[in-house]
Structure formats: structure tokens, C-alpha cells
Amino acid sequence: MSGRLAVVGLGPGDARYVTPQAQSALAGADALYGYGPYLDRVPLLAGQVRHPSDNRQEGARAAAALAHAAAGASVALVSGGDPGVFAMAAAVCEELAAGPPAWRCLDVTIVPGVTAMLAVAARIGAPLGHDFCALSLSDNLKPWELVERRLDAAAGAGFVIALYNPISRARPWQLGRAFERLRGLLPPATPVVFGRAVGRADEAVMVTTLAAADASSADMATLLIVGSRETHVIERPGLAPLVYTSRCAQGTPT
Ligand code: SAH
């Protein structure tokens, strides 16, 4: 089978975050698939066909890209950030596992990108400098009770927590509920970072405390980092604060 599928991470924002590996995967494709606004970030190349799709259609988009590659084309399927983090690479694997046996012979490449939590962390200091975990707050693909159990476990174990998909029009209350839950487990002064649209023109990064954190400060383009007991804020005169998590941890949390 001569077709190829590259699942390409575009990074969090503008073109400076697109790696040289991603650039060459995009330039070598006959056809591009992806969520419309992500495809819009890819420079137009003569002879390439674009197949934009809606946000919610990951499975169908992955299957269409696989079918197109299986027909012999060189296909690139794009994701924001890293394609393996709450994104298209897993959707491709799911479709490939369930699809026609011939798809297993396809040349599939996953091209990594800078994921949102790394871009936000780098803007504010080093909040992921010690043990951390990442959770999606979306309960579209898992029950909310599981989200709560994982939040409790992560906070109880002393992890810094990166929260993806904090809020959307269809999921307005989940972040507020998550803050309530975390307030029962972590000190009120725990630093919380809101990183919005990092790497784009409308970027905004803000640091607050768990006690003061307000869910209405987040939107769909926001990633949150909730600190641990080892996370500190260095105030600097005339400069943005630095948030960091010490490389050393003391004893048992909770
Ligand atoms: N694959 C993506 C994540 C997709 S989930 C990645 O690796 O980054 C979508 C969520 O990612 C958003 O709800 C938001 O929480 C986060 N996100 C994506 N781009 C972002 C950006 N530029 N700044 C802050 N958060 C972002």
C-alpha cells in the first residue's frame, strides 16, 4: 500500500511553533484534513486539497483521512498543540484498530508539537518542574464522576495538575465544580495559572490563588495549571511573576 498518513501537531499558536518536521510533513501532503480553524493556520500550497471539518467529528475525520491514505494519497491530518494530547492521534489509532485490515499496512507517522501545557508553563516560569499530570475536564467522553475521582487522586498525591478543556458553551459548570473540589484538598494560597490563547495574538496569562480562582476567567482556549505544595510565586518589581515548582518535595501530601 503506497498511501501515507502523517498526524501533525501545529503547536499552540503562530507559525513559530510549527517544527521543521511538521513543516515538511505538511509540505509533502497531497491532502490536508483537520478542524477548520487549525487548517487555516497551514500555508496554502498549490495542488493540495483541503478537507476542513467540524470540531466534534474526530472519529469521522480520522476515518476519512485513513481511507484517503489507503487510496494511495499522502495525507496530513492536523491537530493543535501535540496530536497525541487529547487530540487526533488517538482518534486515528481507534479508527485504525476498528477499521479494515488493510489500514494496518499504512505508513502512519505521528509528528509531535508543543502542547498547550508546555507553552503555558514556559510563559510563566517552571510550574511543571516537579511531578505533574494532565487531565481533560471534558465529560463528553467520560463520566463526570471519573473526572472528580482523578482530580481527588491527583491533588491528594501532590501532583501539579494541568487542566485541558476547562469550559465550553455545552460544559459551563465543570470548572467551577473542579475548583470547589480542589479547595477541599489543597491550601487556599495554592497558585493557579490561567493561560489563554498562548502563542497567539490574543494571548493572556494570569496567576491567582486557588481561593480566588474564578471559573468565569477561563474559556475554551484556556489551559489551567493548579500548583502543588511545592509551587511558589516569585513577585518581581515591574515584571511578570515567575511561578515554579521546586524540584524537591517534602514528605507525604494531604
Ligand atoms: N492537542 C492540544 C489539546 C487539545 S484539547 C494540545 O496538545 O495542546 C483543547 C484544549 O487545549 C483547550 O480547551 C485548552 O485547554 C488547550 N489549549 C489549546 N491551545 C491552547 C493555547 N494556545 N493556549 C492555551 N490553551 C490551549
First and last CA, distance: 55 Å
pLDDT < 50 stretches: none
How is the quaternary structure best described? single chain
| Share in helix | 25-40%
How many H/I helical runs? 7
Helix-strand sequence: EHEHEHEHEHEEHEHEEEEE
**Biggest β-sheet: strands ordered side by side in the sheet:** 3-2-4-1-5
Structural class: alpha/beta
Shape designation: elongated
Q: How many strands in all?
A: 13
Radius of gyration: 20 Å
For the residues shown, what is the average pLDDT? 95
Ligands bound, unique? S-adenosyl-L-homocysteine
| Main pleated sheet | 5 strands, parallel
Q: Which strand-content bin applies to the residues?
A: 25-35%
How would you explain this protein's 3D organization?
By secondary structure, the chain is an alpha/beta fold. It contains seven helices and 13 strands. The strands form three sheets. It has a five-stranded parallel sheet with strand order 3-2-4-1-5, with helices on both faces. Strand 7, helix 6 and strand 8 form a beta-alpha-beta unit. Helix 6 runs parallel beside helix 7. Bound molecules: S-adenosyl-L-homocysteine (SAH). S-adenosyl-L-homocysteine (SAH) binds next to helix 5, strand 9 and strand 11. S-adenosyl-L-homocysteine binds next to helix 5, strand 9 and strand 11.
